[in-house]
Amino acid sequence: MTKWQCTSPRRYRSAQSVLHLEALESRAMLNGAGLGDSPAFVGPLLPASAAQTTPAKTIHIDGSLAPNDPSFGVQWDLSNTGQGGGTPGADIHALNAWGTTTGTGQTTVAVIDTGIDYDHPDLFENIWINQAEIPASRMQNLIDVDGDGIIDFRDLNDSRNQGPGKITDVNHDGRIDAADILAPMQLDASGNDTGLGGWAHNSTQDGETQHPDDLIGWNFVNNTNNPFDDNGHGTHVSGTIGAMGNNSVGIAGIDWTAHLMALKFLDSSGSGNDTDAASAIAYAIRHGAKIANNSWGGRGDDPTVDAAVADAHSAGLIFVAAAGNGGANNDLAPSYPANVRLDNVVSVAATDNRDQLAPFSNYGAATVDIAAPGVNIFSTYPNGTYRYMSGTSMAAPHVTGVLALVWDQHPDWTYREVIDQLLRTADRLPGLAGKTVTGGRLDAAAAVNAPNADIAYVQQLYHDLLGRTADIAGMDAWVSALEASLPRAQVAQAIWMSAEHRGREVDTYYATYLRHAADPAGRAGWVNAFLAGATETDVIQAFVTSPEYRAEHAGSATYLSALYQDLLGRPADAGGLAGWVAALTHGLSPQQVAHSLLTSAEGWSAFIRATYGAYLHRAPDPSGAAVWLAELGSGHASPGLMAVAILSSEEYHALAAASGSS
Ligand SMILES: [Ca+2]
Ligand SMILES: [Ca+2]
Ligand SMILES: [Ca+2]
Ligand SMILES: [Ca+2]
């Protein structure tokens, strides 16, 4: 018999690191964005009142759904904000995926491992129940509360399913968990159910006599119906796949309402043998699991396990396997069962919080399919605790969890369609090229076809401000920053203040005020003025008071008429014209006149109208116009700041998402 070991190397198991949230370093962000010449963000960006000006009309194309689990903030694998020194966005994009689905629980997942702490406050409702073994004397009294066709722990934790004849909190921990149903049933003198106690009464009601009272799985180590985890590894794996999400407790699993079948074949030291492994796989097939997580392995092929995996293949069971922790090339030195060459096997390598292959992770361009986070993963641990663990053991359950979400979405798909969806949508990363078949890291959002509002938003900013589509490097950098919670205003401002956008503004000024294209030296000069801190009004004022402009519109009356038309968008009224001509005659400079017109209520209103029209495609609403008029008039905002605020508004974001999805 071959000895098998769980693939969480001891040297990594205790690799706990104290994570702390670190603020994003803005300069690094901006420099990474393909806008190398853009100035670093300097805050604060907006006056408080201005931030509220554009009304939130339609929101929620955003797609993100942050769970209330208190430790979610350290789950960098699901949402990497740079905590612990990682790269923001180097994660599986779980938040975006959850905007589309958090799972339905229809896809049963077998955890073939060291067992599960089925009483864990963050797992107990997501433990699978063998429907056929629910005693008939109790089943008749139970209500399928959520109407999904099965009785699970979510149903049992509804008070309508509690009490004599149903289930009671036998172990008095305040919840209905597997320990309660695994407890012995209290029988009367004739051996009938008194309605008290648990559900175990030496039954083989499901017809499979080898496994009596197998209510939640099986323990193949000591051949009992109690697969409690006496090691910790299986509980950790289980939490990544399906810890109860958004329950205000601990962490969030990838599949918030998973059904986890507990199949223990690894003992308290993490070792097991091939016959028990094969028995666990056979059990998973027979009892309707759709996906099996296998965070264990070893060098050397084993015919007993091979045969079981072949049976899984015939049954259409997806067999997710950890690639192994030898830091070796599985193409050359195969690791089993990950290297079983059947198309239901998905072999998983581990990445760190910078999207780099973990040094311990096995890899293989031909035999390892995909990578997933596997370094310092925070998850559930026995006795209601949590801890960090590392290994390809920790990477595989990420793939398992996302496969469950995909299959929940598409219950009619074949196992191969589900796997293909996952592999096709992997995030291709330079660090993984040549290391896995896909060259990519798991992307939950892409796998569940979540609309990516961030991509649409960045694309729209590029279109509106730069007049082009985003280059791949720029798009990647900005989307990663947004996924890591960089405020939209910072992205919009950085692009607004980039030399590329400033150059386009200067081009517009040449065309509008001088009616010819910019000469290179003049263009560069004005871009530099912007980069040195000039505002839009400063530059426009310089254009309309330039010798060229004044020569073009010689004579006070002609000059004033041109200013009215160019700055206010209308012909001069007789009174205004006469007044300004007189002022010029009495020594007021053209700069003073232009400044007065630009910064008059009418001048500011022209800016406001133009900005709303350009980016929101509508006229300003009266309240928005009034707030901006006050901000601009008091000098608290410049036209550029107003534009940035509008470009980071919910309304603009929603417009971008709508146009991006059409
Ligand atoms: Ca139910
Ligand atoms: Ca209980
Ligand atoms: Ca049975
Ligand atoms: Ca939770």
Structural descriptors:
seven-stranded parallel β-sheet, binds calcium ion, alpha/beta, elongated
Widest sheet: strand order?
A: 5-6-2-8-10-12-13
Structural class: alpha/beta
Residue runs with pLDDT of under 50 for 5 or more positions? 9-64
**Average pLDDT score:** 87
Concise summary:
This protein has 662 residues and is an alpha/beta fold.
Please write out the topology.
Elements: E1 3-6, H1 10-13, H2 26-31, H3 94-98, E2 108-113, H4 136-139, H5 153-156, H6 178-182, E3 185-187, E4 193-197, E5 217-219, H7 233-242, E6 259-264, E7 271-273, H8 274-286, E8 291-294, E9 296-299, H9 303-315, E10 318-322, E11 335-336, E12 345-351, E13 370-373, E14 377-381, E15 385-389, H10 392-409, H11 415-424, E16 427-428, E17 440-441, H12 444-447, H13 453-466, H14 472-483, H15 488-496, H16 499-514, H17 520-531, H18 536-544, H19 547-552, H20 556-568, H21 574-585, H22 590-598, H23 601-616, H24 622-633, H25 639-647, H26 650-661
Parallel strand pairs: 2-6, 2-8, 5-6, 8-10, 10-12, 12-13
Antiparallel strand pairs: 1-7, 1-9, 3-4, 9-11, 14-15, 16-17
Helix pairs in contact: 7-10, 8-9, 10-11, 13-14, 13-15, 13-26, 15-25, 16-17, 18-22, 20-21, 23-24, 23-25
Bound molecules: calcium ion (4 copies).
One calcium ion binds next to loops.
